[in-house]
Amino acid sequence: MKIFISADIEGIAGVSNWDETSVNGPGYEEARHLMTQEVLAACQGALDAGCKEIVIKDAHGSGRNIISSQLPECITLVRGWSGHPYSMLQEIDNTFDATIMIGYHSAAGSDSNPLAHTFTSNVAQISLNGELASEFLINALTSTLVNVPVVFVSGDKGICEEVTKFNNNIETRFVSQGRGASSICISPKQAYQNIKDGVNKALKKNVSACRVELPEFFELKIRFTDPISAYRASFYPGMIKSDKQLVTFETNDYFDLLRMLQFII
């Protein structure tokens, strides 16, 4: 079995402030350790389920957060950003059996995590086919594009609830929940155990039940936090400027949508 892990930091247990997510922040070193341990727990769960090959995309900020020396020998770690439209799933293809997402978080415009956002703080909200779009949703459809089912997601309670609505066969484990500007987290040790057990369970189930159909048409609306960004984005081919902060992109090809996001966000 070959699996792909995409790891972010804002949905990690114990992370609750932006200064913990920035490489120069006072809480960053602890946060990257917590992130590494949750990724390690996912690896251990996968190995216990019989997985032989694991590719991990460090998908937060600089893409250089995970402490690689703490990971198993069988992993391949993707660090930094190539610029490929698959972005947080760079290097995924149809040779993988399953996708796992660790440390994921609620979308911009939600109140389920004080660090809720979608790709960048410059975006107030993204919607896809009329639904609020999180990084999970965008990346889950990317995984679907190469015919790889998402089987497990951990992060805040809000994103886990979204995943269940997306496909209730996907295993989820929430490790925190937002309340105003605060984050209520379980202990890191409990988070590691829950993730390890959840990944193990997910990979021992019928992973094909986690497959979804890719929509035939995509309407993506991006509301920026400022009109300057919307004006600039409006010059991307096919983009429509709907109002001073809102742009709309329509396509039948999901890769075209991902390519657009790569250039304007």
Write up what this structure looks like.
It is a single chain. With 265 residues, the protein is of the alpha/beta class. The longest helix is centred in the N-terminal third of the chain and has 21 residues, at 28-48. The chain is built from six helices and twelve strands. It folds into two domains: 2-112 and 135-210, Dipeptide transport protein (Rossmann fold, 3-Layer(aba) Sandwich); 218-264, no CATH class. Strands 3-2-1-4-7-8-9 form a seven-stranded mixed beta sheet, with helices on both faces. It has a five-stranded antiparallel beta sheet with strand order 6-5-10-12-11.
Derived from helix and strand composition plus strand pairing, the structural class reads: alpha/beta
End-to-end Cα distance:
34 Å
Adjacency order of strands in the biggest sheet: 3-2-1-4-7-8-9
CATH superfamily of the largest domain: Dipeptide transport protein
Fraction of residues in helices? Answer: 25-40%
Look at the structure and give the CATH class of the largest domain.
Alpha Beta
Q: How many extended strands? A: 12
According to CATH, the fold-level topology of the largest domain is: Rossmann fold
If classified by CATH, what would the architecture of the largest domain be?
3-Layer(aba) Sandwich
Counted by DSSP, the helix tally is 6
Gyration radius from CA atoms, angstroms: 17 Å
> Major beta sheet, specifics?
7 strands, mixed
* Mean pLDDT level: 97
Please state the overall shape, judged from the principal axes of the Cα atoms. globular
Low-confidence stretches: none
Assembly state of the chains shown: single chain
